[in-house]
Amino acid sequence: MSGDVVAVVLAGGSGTRFGAPVSKVYVDLGGRPVIAHSLAAFESHPDVDHVVLVVCAEDRGACAAVLADAASTKVRAVVDGGATRQASEWAGIEAVTALDLDDPLVLLHDAARPLTTPDLVSGLIAAARDGAGAIPAVGVTDDLVDPVGRRVTTDDLVAVQTPQAFPLHVLRRTYPAAIAGGFDGVDTAQTVDAFADVEIRWVASSAENLKITHPADLDRAEAILSARR
Known about the structure:
alpha/beta; 3-stranded mixed sheet; 7 helices
């Protein structure tokens, strides 16, 4: 694997649960669109060399405006996403392949997680450098029950986040197999785990690396940003 690191920022979802007239990643957060914060996490990180952005075709104009304001120096490609998350991930992986790098490390990240920290990105890169996969996770603290109301022990459970880091050759091997087999993973790690014998390590994260799904999440993110300032 080469020293190159490529961040694939996934903004191909519709975000219908958020209830805004525009995709949630273009909603304002602290004076900038949500997606601008997600891009900045990689633009400013010294170990990330390239960025690929996966967007909805109808959001191309909004995306272009964000990139113009951000004056990004690392975005190498903007590609349209697919009908599912896995299809959007594959579009990003193909765009990374087209960069013709020597088996880079790929970080796949939800654009709707705008508060990713440099320390988390560094930890994931370090954990995945020797060919393993790496995912951020935080321990589950809420009480959980199964569908019939039985309490579930959470001592060994973690909530998985993004970015998720894997060598390109692993992604190139597993996604075609998943697509051919009709498998539709909920995230990168599930797809890789189903079709490759690769160790997937988890790196400690925090609840601050939240995903903007509902308007209340935006309020929480605003509070975290204010506290960081």
